[in-house]
């Protein structure tokens, strides 16, 4: 599939500014990309074009030159721009018979219509115009932020200057809150009609092993569309995907290139927002002083979401079509938002990916501590380690401790708590929560727990389970978790221990959550559920190597995903965001790209329509044939039916399968009806 980069720059008059702005142009700017996720390796990576609104032929050529471009011409030998024209027709922006200015030839002025026919035309016509688009690709180590590619948007009483690459407009390091006093809630930030650069990421929040800052409350916006004057008809605004990073509430950042938004916004035609929020003790400490009640990092997330609702239409996003999504602790944050009265009405979609809960390490991500419990588990050891236990004001004493010292203590605060404001109950109450307008898609990795379980050098299953904190006696005696018969007995034991961990911490609680939401009609109709059975482990988080990596062979030097391996925690991220190649990684086989296209298309479709099955008309218009063929072959992804509990096994090809390990979950104490 070709990568046809199609940028639409709707301009009124000539661009007379060094840094263009939609407001000054009096016109929208839209980048449309027919993106196959191959980046600059694509055979049509040079196919970028810019569309100008209707004007004379002479103005078209001059305005392209003002943009540093020229009128597009077939003689330039770029790849076909037809899928982009088809998409404009599909979206009803123009009819198929619409003509667009292109470069003249020796015979005179020319135009191309929506079906790709090139004809000579009168120079006196007024037509939209197609300019070339030569903005370069960005990647994990390179972004060209020079003035030529910059663009300014007026939002939140600031003039924010970002830039475009070949796929999207990028506004990085936008402040959504001033630096708060330590252990207080952040407040919204409002500009003062100042100029602000949004061409580089803001500081990461303080965390162990990172030179972060307490002044870190920034967000990043990736968008294909910038409307003029912050206003556009609702039908022109794009769905918004609001990403909350994981990292155990102790690490991570919205700046992580794993979740770069260029591919998902260009291929998915959505707006992506990624955020920083305070982490570790600085974000989650609670004390028993009646004032320091914790949840500061969670409140930061809600503050950022409020910023998005207020301002995202300036960046082409629809504030009434926001999907909050996150992975691991980010999924726990999404679940907490579903439970919090503070976020009611603020979003319409939710995608918790690999939410933790149940037993063991995962419990506190879905079952929130009281402040007294948090003080016992976290605050008291922190106070003791900092000599603040007997201070007249414990919080003032802790405010005097260097931030990095707090983040690197042996014990840190990382728990959501029942603070009485942001969280008022100890978990998501499916029976009494009523969110009929919120649509949910959720799921997990087949072997999420394999990345959290330690390999113990033992061939004794009881020893392994006990050492990892699971009740060995009932598990071993049940016969529900049989040992494999592989030659490596240590790995056989690990296999069962990892399965128990996956069930205990992920699968059982997530399946029970879906069942309860269907029982009580907690959310909007049509809940979707998945299990990833293909993964590409992130090098930055690859526990127990090489078990989470596809096995290497002579025919597959980068790994063979068709062979058996553990599909571990975080293994879906490159696929959902379409960033395998952007991260400089290798394609392991011929299915990595088609599968990533399918995963990204499914997530973007859910954000667009609350249905992960993209419209076939859209797929045909944009030339997304791999996803179209997958849906035609495997059938649609069906919502969960309480009377026939099915999930979508996401692999290549995908298929519907029953909920797994239902009896095992019952044995472990997390049955399907746990929340009922």
UniProtKB/TrEMBL annotation:
<comment type="similarity">
    <text>Belongs to the type-B carboxylesterase/lipase family.</text>
</comment>
<protein>
    <recommendedName>
        <fullName>Carboxylic ester hydrolase</fullName>
        <ecNumber>3.1.1.-</ecNumber>
    </recommendedName>
</protein>
<dbReference type="GO" id="GO:0016787">
    <property type="term" value="F:hydrolase activity"/>
</dbReference>
<keyword id="KW-0378">Hydrolase</keyword>
<feature type="signal peptide">
    <location>
        <begin position="1"/>
        <end position="18"/>
    </location>
</feature>
<dbReference type="InterPro" id="IPR029058">
    <property type="entry name" value="AB_hydrolase_fold"/>
</dbReference>
<dbReference type="InterPro" id="IPR002018">
    <property type="entry name" value="CarbesteraseB"/>
</dbReference>
<feature type="domain" description="Carboxylesterase type B">
    <location>
        <begin position="170"/>
        <end position="651"/>
    </location>
</feature>
<dbReference type="InterPro" id="IPR019819">
    <property type="entry name" value="Carboxylesterase_B_CS"/>
</dbReference>
<dbReference type="Pfam" id="PF00135">
    <property type="entry name" value="COesterase"/>
</dbReference>
<keyword id="KW-0732">Signal</keyword>
<dbReference type="InterPro" id="IPR019826">
    <property type="entry name" value="Carboxylesterase_B_AS"/>
</dbReference>
């Amino acid at each position: 599939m070709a990568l046809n980069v199609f940028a639409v720059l709707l301009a009124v008059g000539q661009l007379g500014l060094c840094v263009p702005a939609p407001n000054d142009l009096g016109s929208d700017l839209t980048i449309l990309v027919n993106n196959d996720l191959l980046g600059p390796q694509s055979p049509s990576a040079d196919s970028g074009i810019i569309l100008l609104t209707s004007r004379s032929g002479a103005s078209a050529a001059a305005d392209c030159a003002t943009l540093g471009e020229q009128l597009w011409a077939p003689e330039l030998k770029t790849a076909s721009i037809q899928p982009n024209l088809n998409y404009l027709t599909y979206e009803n922006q123009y009819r198929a018979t619409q003509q667009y200015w292109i470069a003249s030839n020796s015979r005179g002025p020319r135009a191309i219509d929506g079906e790709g026919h090139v004809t000579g035309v009168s120079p006196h016509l007024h037509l939209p115009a197609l300019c070339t688009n030569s903005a370069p690709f960005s990647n994990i180590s390179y972004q060209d932020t020079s003035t030529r590619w910059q663009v300014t948007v007026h939002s939140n009483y600031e003039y924010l200057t970002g830039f475009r690459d070949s796929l999207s407009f990028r506004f990085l390091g936008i402040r959504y809150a001033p630096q708060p006093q330590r252990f207080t809630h952040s407040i919204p930030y409002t500009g003062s009609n100042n100029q602000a650069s949004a061409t580089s990421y803001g500081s990461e929040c303080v965390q162990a092993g990172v030179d972060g800052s307490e002044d870190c409350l920034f967000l990043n916006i990736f968008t294909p569309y910038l409307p003029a004057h912050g206003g556009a008809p609702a039908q022109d605004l794009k769905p918004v995907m609001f990403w909350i990073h994981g990292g155990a509430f102790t690490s991570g950042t919205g700046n992580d290139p794993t979740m770069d938004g260029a591919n998902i916004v260009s291929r998915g035609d959505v707006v992506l927002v990624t955020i920083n929020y305070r982490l570790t003790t600085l974000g989650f400490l609670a004390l028993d002083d009646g004032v320091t009640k914790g949840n500061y990092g969670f409140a930061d997330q809600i503050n950022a979401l409020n910023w998005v609702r207020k301002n995202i239409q300036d960046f082409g996003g629809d504030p009434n079509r926001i999907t909050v999504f996150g992975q691991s602790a980010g999924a726990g944050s999404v679940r907490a938002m579903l439970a919090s009265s503070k976020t009611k009405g603020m979003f319409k979609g939710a995608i918790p990916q690999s939410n933790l809960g149940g037993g063991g390490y995962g419990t506190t991500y879905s079952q929130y501590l009281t402040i007294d419990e948090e003080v016992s588990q976290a605050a008291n050891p922190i106070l003791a380690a900092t000599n603040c236990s007997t201070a007249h004001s414990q919080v003032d004493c802790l405010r005097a401790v260097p931030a990095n010292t707090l983040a690197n203590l042996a014990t840190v605060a990382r728990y959501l708590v029942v603070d009485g404001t942001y969280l008022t109950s100890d978990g998501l109450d499916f029976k009494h929560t009523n969110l009929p307008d919120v649509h949910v898609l959720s799921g997990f990795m087949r072997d999420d727990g394999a990345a959290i379980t330690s390999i113990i050098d033992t061939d004794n299953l009881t020893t392994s389970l006990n050492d990892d904190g699971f009740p060995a006696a009932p598990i071993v005696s049940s016969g529900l978790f049989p040992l494999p018969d592989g030659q490596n007995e240590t790995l056989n034991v690990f296999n069962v221990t990892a399965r128990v961990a996956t069930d205990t911490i992920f699968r059982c609680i997530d399946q029970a959550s879906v069942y309860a939401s269907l029982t009580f009609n907690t959310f909007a109709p049509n809940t979707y559920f998945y299990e990833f059975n293909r993964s590409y482990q992130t090098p930055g988080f690859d526990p127990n190597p090489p078990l989470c990596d596809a096995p290497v062979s002579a025919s597959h030097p980068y790994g063979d995903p068709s062979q058996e391996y553990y599909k571990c925690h975080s293994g879906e991220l490159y696929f959902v965001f379409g960033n395998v190649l952007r991260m400089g990684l290798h394609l392991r086989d011929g299915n990595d790209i088609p599968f990533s296209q399918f995963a990204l298309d499914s997530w973007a479709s859910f954000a667009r329509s609350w249905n992960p099955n993209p419209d076939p008309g859209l797929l045909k218009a944009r030339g997304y044939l791999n996803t179209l063929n997958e849906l035609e072959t495997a059938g649609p992804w069906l919502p969960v039916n309480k009377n026939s509990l099915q999930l979508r096994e996401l692999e290549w090809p995908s298929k519907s399968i029953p909920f797994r390990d239902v009896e095992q979950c019952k044995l472990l104490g997390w049955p399907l009806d746990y929340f009922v």
